[in-house]
Amino acid sequence: MADALNEPLLEVCGVTKRFGGFTALDKVDLVVRPGERLGLIGPNGSGKSTLVNCISGTLRNEEGGIRFEGRDIGKEPAHRRTRLGLARSFQIPKPFASMSVLDNLRIPLVYAARQHEKLSKSHITDEALHILQQVGLGDKVHAMSGGLTQVDMRKLELARAMAAKPKLLISDEAMAGLSASEVDDILVLLSGLRQQGVAVIMIEHVMRAVMKFSERVAVLVAGRKIADGDPQAVANNMEVVTAYLGQ
Amino acid sequence: MSNRAFAAAAFTIALAIVAASRLIPNDYFFSAAYTVLQFIILATAWNILGGYTGYVNFGSAAFFATGAYSTVFLYKALHAPLIVMIVTGTLAAGLLGLAVGYLTLRLRGVFFAIATLALAVVLYTFVVNWDYVGGARGAYILQPRDIPFGLPRYIHLLYSAMVLMTALALIVARAIETSTIGRGLAAIRDDEVAAECAGVPTLRLKIFSATVSGALMGMAGTTFPYYLSYVEPSAAFNLSYAVNSIAMPLIGGMMSWVGPVIGAVLLGTVQQVVQVTISSAWNLLIVGVLLVVFVTLAPNGIMGWVEAWRRRKR
Lengths: 247, 314
Fold this sequence. Notes:
The structure holds two protein chains of two kinds. Chain A folds into two domains: 1-85 and 170-247, P-loop containing nucleotide triphosphate hydrolases (Rossmann fold, 3-Layer(aba) Sandwich), CATH 3.40.50.300; 94-165, no CATH class. Chain A contains ten helices and ten strands. Chain A has helices spanning 2-6, 48-56, 78-84, 101-116, 121-135, 150-163, 180-195, 207-213, 231-236, 238-245, and strands at 10-19, 22-32, 37-41, 63-68, 71-72, 86-88, 168-172, 199-203, 216-221, 224-229. In chain A, helix 4 (101-116) crosses helix 5. Chain B has a two-stranded antiparallel ribbon with strand order 1-2. In chain B, helix 7 (180-190) crosses helix 9 (202-222). The longest helix of chain B is centred in the first third of the chain and has 26 residues, at 27-52. Chain B is globular and about 55 Å long. Chain A binds chain B through residues 56-58, 77-80, 82-83, 87-88, 90, 94-99, 103, 106-108, 110-113, 115, 160, 163-164, and chain B through 180, 183-184, 186-187, 189-191, 193-203, 255.
């Protein structure tokens, strides 16, 4: 048991991703332990989303390896990574627009969560309703997801990732544009996931949220990881300050 | 209604229609109804890939002709019975659908549509140069003299086969739509990347959808050579198949299996009537005008319009 806790959940080793002549990620290493809360920050265009795409499998990295629970997943298609327990939300919401909010959640519940948990039909609906209640979409269950407001779509993104019943959830800027109280709601929600043993990588520009939430913060600048450690130490790191504010 | 109950009901109704049709003395009815039924199958089949999955196939004629020419081949080579021809043509077109399914790996949207159109052109050229099945000259297919089940004429048999095949196509389409697979296909249509990240095996589902869609289109073409008694490439690969099988679901509604049926009955019947009363040259013009009207007034088709009206009433 002690071994299982120390074993990293996600291991990213030397991942490099190029778009033509542009190197978006340059030998990035990253480790996430089970149940850990990691903040991933960096200026716009630093490669945060590209890293998420490589981890979740929507992009293929040219070099480097990605291991999940000790297993090499670098060549697995995205849907199999989700089924293994690696779910993500999208920075630009991608709802299944022709479906109701409830049906949006049924997709990951049926296609991902049911792969490792026994879920009956009525169970799936209960589970979906429970998650929607948690993210604050309880009163919009039957609304068409295409007609939601931007804020609600972000909540739906998070809910859909949670519905896959992941061991690691990557939240890609779920809080952009939310009000202070809504940010707090989401923070409570993400922290609650920890009680269930779910590790979270939070990508965020809302620094207050990152500092409050994270046990550890990693910083990406121009495709390279320049800092990784205690949130306070990282915030005081000269290199990070320079990257954000300039010389 | 469960799939089994729906299948039982559909086949019962189909058999009842076949039995009742024997009372109709007019042979023209059978040949006109055959065409409308053929379009119901084509539209239903197209909708599985186009409506449910969101991949617009412009090459319906290629699948239809694969079914037709597989019958021509079996006629020349073996004089095989009709049922063998129907099964073989369906499987052959299904294989072609499988190949198209792999195209979706790299091609989306307009590029996929262009690729399917190109596929039809390539197959057309192939058939034109294949002498065994008649090449550009075409081939004569004689209707057998002895007709089973005591039917008066061969067109009655073709019509009956078409009624049963239509029932089959509708059962398949409805079963897919209401299943977990159908929900996965809808997720792909709405957002393929999000679907993949929600655990939906997108490639496998797209290949499945393209295969079933292609197989059913091919099935609609298998009896075509007997229907006309003479097949030539430009008839089997006619652009009207591609245009109609897109226009009919679009007009009827693409979200459910009912839409293509409504679209095909409406458009197919109007075309038959116009063909008799005005002229056959007007056919595609009518399709075009109706398309423009529907795209502007009811972009989600008749079913979409009905759905919106029902929601407003609630």
